[in-house]
What does this fold into?
Amino acid sequence: MHSLQGLFRFWPHLSTLLLLVLAGCTRPAPEPTLQINFSPDHLRLVLGGAGEVNITLVRQNLPGLAELRLINPLPEGITASITPSSTTGNTATLRIQASSHATVGSFNLRVQAVQGSISVTSELPLQIEPSQQPDLQLSLNNPTPSIRQGQYADLLVDVRRINLEGTVVLALEQQNGAPLPSGLSATFSPTLPNSTVSILRISVASTASTGPYPLRIKATLGSLERTLDFPLTVLEALPEPDFQLNLTQHLSLQRGTTSSESIAITRINLSGPIALSLERFDGTPLPTGIRATFAPAETEGTLSTLTISAAPDVPLGDYVLRVRGVQGALERTALVLLNVFDQAGLTANGAVWVAAQGDSGAWQVVPPTAGSYHLRIGNAAERYGWAVVCSKTEAGLTTHQVNVYQLTLSEVRRLDLSCPPSTSSDAFSDLSGQLNNLGGHYAQVAFGTASDFVDPARTGSFPPTPAYPGYLLQGARHGTADLMAVRYLPPTPPGTHFQADRALFQRNFTLSGRQTLDLDMQGSASFALEGTYKATLTNPDPSAQGLSYLAYLTPTTQTLYLADSQQDAANLTYRAIPDNRRKPNEFYVFNARETTFSNLSLRSRQVLRAIASPQDLSASFLSLPEARLRLENNRFQASWSPYSWSGSGSQLFSLQLEQLAVAPNTNLAWHLHLSRRWVGGITSYPIPNLAHSCAAGQSPCAPAPSNTPANGWQSTWSLRDNLELDWSFSAVQVSLPLADWLPLAQSTLPPAGHNLDGFSFDAASAGGIYNVSSLSAQRQAQAKGPRLLPFWLSPR
It folds into this structure.
């Protein structure tokens, strides 16, 4: 009963629904519709890459055959196809290929589906990105050239390297790989471009057949090969008067010099003067700093001489120019690739292997000329590199030193480096003695690289001799240097500051064996320090163990410490040496260093200031960059956080890597000096793989397999992935030009001939032990400085 009542209650609604259903049976069928869906709904490709997109057709009341096609021109370098191009089903595949020279950017591909009178279009977003894989890209300024019989044409070939070093070999051939057909010939200028541009001259003989020729440019670098197809059309020769220009198409000019080149004019039924000029490739005037004259400027003959000069400050690099000849309405041109270059020099006495990194970025073995090495630099950034390997054997232990410098000409034009003697003949012994009249004070004694801090309160058994108060210089190198001693007042409060009050020089002291020499701190050779000056450090690390002192340097001696603060690196007072005790060209250096251990890793930073005379001074530390090492395929990569430099001057990053027991009784030390102008904004840098250099005279220059001795590189000069690595990374800023400073940093003696008044030096560094097998950092047993300075200018 209740169910019937419910039915009656809902009857009005049910009746309405029934009427709607009955009405639908007599309504006309829906209009046919067609829709295109993509999966994925967008595509991202790198240059040289390919991808697929699934196409789904959504049909309604539309059976039958649908055609699919791409409409509107595709972006340059992009090819695409749809399979199948017509279907009665609902799926198809869109395949897209990006060539190595495709245009980078964002595009929309329009796909159209047509069935009868119905047509729909849908857009697929396409993103083309630069390739990160090593690659070559080729392009032509004229992709459809045409040449008449008996004439030639110049084409500009752009060769773009992507993460690739080395020399590219260019060739012209038919598209099927066969040699050029009879009647066609071609030259590339240069044939082996280290730059990114080469001029292709195609010559057509008068007997060549007219019509189309499918050709291609082939670029080869080692095992990598890329091609660029283009059609050439040979046209029938015309009897009208004409002329052509001939000259060497790849010219080199060192900036600051002048060069001359002959131009030959081939006349075809033509007489009268031809006006000659030199301009940019696009017809605009020559770049500032490049000048050209013709003799004669208007010639009625077949020869003229082109003289080109480059100013000393003209930017380096390739300039695509053209010689233009005009007679009335007749105009002909010939392309010229002018490379403006400069030279860097290197003296590396005692080096066992030297390689250079020039325009192409590839490392090439360089033979010396008259004892020096010379490198041609022709890139706009003026970047270049030297790699010098030194080897020395001492007490049966051989150490290989690999020194890599990557710099710019604006910073360094010439380096003068000396390797240590291949075998050490220097003798070492101990120098010891009593310090008379020390009066319970502390003292510092130094000779050569050996020094001793004398604590009269220490009564232990080390050092074994002499009995305190006295000194012991262990392992002092035989030779002649100044023996120096400084007396310090007792610290107030104890353990905080040392204040120097007296010093003495034993000038030109000669050590030839184990010797004993007593020093009198109140004798005629000693003297009192004069004046009181203040040194203030800003931005010190409160948690650091600091070391601050003022050093007095001479051209032949080591450091003399006049004041010392072992715990407080912020403020310091010091006294000066009397003027009558100084020699010409001697100067003062204020040096401060912080050293901390953080997370089992050594971190240190340093500041140095040179002054001509004693004075109050202040100095601040650079911020310490975060530096890390990681291992990639047996090659280390250094990375550092973005770095903000304070002040001005030349900036340099330096990375030192040391591995012990690379081979039995053999150690390896890597030093990489990288100027900031060279590295630009990059914050990570792989250690250069110098095994990819090429032997002198090798042509073409094909990279050798890694760590093979084919080019003179030895595997013992390479970092290993299963050994502990002692490393330090430094950021350095110096006020001297690097041309003066870098040789100074590598010298085993203080500089001669350099005026270092006003010299300043700032450094921030991090270092530690890197266990590459477990990829972990371990605490270093003893704190080490940045090692950018020679020992005579390093903190003790």
Remarks:
- Residues 443 and 487 are 4 Å apart (CA to CA).
- DSSP finds three helices and 57 strands in the chain.
- Helices lie at 2-24, 676-679, 738-746.
